[in-house]
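Teaching assistant here, posting this on the class forum so everyone can see the example we discussed in section. The complex has two components, and the goal was to see what a joint structure prediction looks like when all of them are supplied at once.
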Amino acid sequence: MTLVVKRYIVAALSFFLLLSLLIVAFQESNMKRKETHQDAIVTGANEGCVTCHMKDSPALVMEWEFSKHAKVGIGCIECHVAEKGEVDAWKHEGTYVSVLVTPKDCARCHSKEYEEFSRSHHAKAGEILASLDNVLAEKVAGLPDNNADAVNGCWQCHGTIIKFEKDKDGDILRTGKEGKPVIDADTWPNSGIGRLNPDGSKGSCHACHSRHAFQSKLSRSPENCGKCHMGPDHPQIEIYNESKHGIAFYANRDRMAMDKKGSWVLGKDYSAAPTCASCHISAYMTPQGEVKAASHDVGERISWTLRPIISSKLNMIIYEDGFKEDFPHTRALPKIGETLDTNEKVVENEELVNKVVSRKVEKIVTWEERRDLMKGACLNCHNDTYVDNFYKQFDGLVTLYNEKFARPAKAMMDDLKKDGVLKADAPFEKEVQWIFWELWHHEGRRARHGASMMGPDYTHWHGMYEVSKHYYTEFLPAVIEAAEETSHALGNKYRRKVEELLTAPEHAWQKGLSKEEADALKSAYKKRYEK
Amino acid sequence: MGNSKDTETKGGLKFSEMLPFDWELLRHAGSEPVPNHLKKWWFCLGGTVAYLFIVQLATGVALTFYYIPSPEFAYDSVANITHNVRFGWFVRSLHKWSSNFMIVALFLHVMRVFFTQAYRHPRQLNWMVGFGLLGVTLFFGFTGYSLVYEQLSYWGATVAANLAEATPLVGELLGFFLRGGPEVGANTLTRFYVLHIGFLPMVAFMLIGLHILLIRLQGVTELRFENDPPEKAAGHFKFFPDHVTSEMIVGVLLMYLLVMMALIFPAELGERANPAVTPPHIKPEWYFYFNYRLLKLTSLKVSVVLTMVFGGIAFFWPFVDEFLRRRLKANDSVIVLIGVVAILMIFTFTVWESFSG
């Protein structure tokens, strides 16, 4: 090799070395950009927003910079843009925008999620506005001119109708040079999952996908659902924490791939534990491959409803326009193609009204099929005997609650109404109404939810124990008392009814145990404690 | 201000007077003709090691700016270098890859010297100096890896200290000297650090100086290849610029490869060292796989004794070679065969270990 060739080789290699060093510099600056969130793409349309809001609300902008949206140039305008004439729109710095970002806005990119979510039980959470829960918050706990309990309590999870302040002519009040519409403070801020938005859409994506970072790990975390699914009437998060699933999750959070980009598949991306999302929404593996469920219709895999006084299994009727209804298993199923009158709650003039719409049945998903969808998730870790037997245990508990307590208690309440003891328009007048309310709405649900997610203490001590204790010692005496308050004759009638009820074999324990049972109990206690 | 004649300069600065040195001698030494066989690339391996040593010095000094040799902070400081310090990941990756390249180049250099029989009289001493350098480099690798203080390096250090402890007679003392106590901990880190950045570089410098000095004094071996016609005189070419340009090609190529390795396989950081939890698979760095496999095949004591015997034979090889040829009348083919068997054994054990759990 001549000296000249060697020199050319040195030159060529030096060139490559220089190139590689440029890549090093690029890598380094890339790392720094990521750390300082400089990898956010601020498009021309968003430059003005970011510049001002970086001063006014810097943390908000920083959170957006951290988001995946920012990395692909989805900025403020893409979500907050509004059309001229929309009730919540105003011209801000030359562009029509709105404070509210509704599911319809998100649907511009996430249309599949919007469709799934819109037919879900979550989207209908705002319909609680016409329920006993709301009566308790607005009337019982509130003042005629102060419904702060509902505003700060119920509505923050369930959502509310977004309303605007009006002038004397009924026009929306506007403020400032730009004429920003004034939202009724009782209805905003509100991130309730069933919020009723001015554009007719239901819900709030932000309820689970907190703005403005929209981190996947947040919506995959059980704590996220626990904001609302907790407390005396639906303690799902407490039950989850008590269950083996919850224990495994908290011990293995670092193995849950919570931050994984894109799909998050049980049995592929993680295995340590299921979170709420794993079982109710997310994808999972099956022998046939990945079930790309990722359904934002959160109730899809639920086969029992555990909310009402008496639980029933649920068949799902999906109509041509995507509207969905749950039919209790006791109700006859329609035929595919049949047209039915459906009840839909809509907002008209800022009020929730019932609308009857004729719809054609397109698809029926039976409760068994819904259960199979849930089982698919279970089978990632458990075998079919385990899963089937779990459902037998769970079904047994719901049936026990239904038959021994809920059905007779409800029959008793219905009779009291028929006899004029209870008034339909005074749901919390008598003590028996309060006791009955807590019996099914709090204690009964706790027992059923406890069994559904394998939380033993919630099933028994917070659940069935409270149901039975209050049924015998408070509810039945209160039934007689309420009847007695109306008339002595009615009092006697219900005394006899209760006595008759208690003659059934399942209540015979009240009269005392059989000799064998009493002896067995005695000796067991003796063995255990007399040492 | 002095007014002495000595301080006056006529017509500008005179560097040669400021540094009184025989520049002609340097020019002469620099352009000394070297034998033609040095044009063959495998004769650049020694220079490669020297070059990588300089890379190690430069990157190593930069790393010491941020490294903290204490059990509480060692791991965090390496994490800081890797994730926060400007170009820290790059410098650390260069240091790691350069050390691996250095060991590969050293092994190849030793093989080249062995098979060209360049260790024979009068160069026996330089073989031993070179072998000392190999030992120093391996010790460099071991101490450096342990400084990271991640699970594997921590437990690697523990195993190595146990091996040292199994050395006959001085084992206990050696084990204690390495660890600075009954277990790997704060004392181990400080002494590894001092050895890695102070003592070992000093020894390496001295040995490299001696190695090069001996080469210059004895000259490079005049090598004749079998297929060279017997009448061919050993040709020479100039050290500068011819050989230096070859070395430059090697240097730039190496730097390019190092940068690419750092980019594609940057130095990673495993789990933080936890003295309470032994990881299921402890593995030393690949260049100790031979010893590790030996340990697994035999026992602690036997493997240490075997390593010492093999090491001893290798260190005194020029004399063993002499003994084999003079006393046992072994010819060159036998010597080559011994080398091939030794290399195959090292290679097989290393590959075996790398594929075992």
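For the discussion questions: The interface with chain A takes residues 39, 86-87, 89-90, 241-242, 245-246, 248-249, 252-253, 255-256, 259-260, 262-263 of chain B (CB under 8 Å). The first helix of chain B runs from residue 15 to 18. Think about how each of these relates to the inputs above.
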